[in-house]
Amino acid sequence: MVTVNGEPFAKVAGQNLLAFLQQRKTPVDNVVVELNGTIIHRPEYEQTLIKPDDKLELISFVGGGR
Fold it and tell me: Model-level pTM?
């Protein structure tokens, strides 16, 4: 089972990060992905496979304010 932002996700292992983000409709340009405590850079999303028991943190940037 893969954990994403503290929530368990099934059937995610084996996908690459880019496919997973696209499936979730996550805007790739506005997100930082941390995999098991390591930040993964955008050019590495397609080559990085999600494995069972991985822990992902998706951090989105939101504009606003003054």
Answer: 0.85
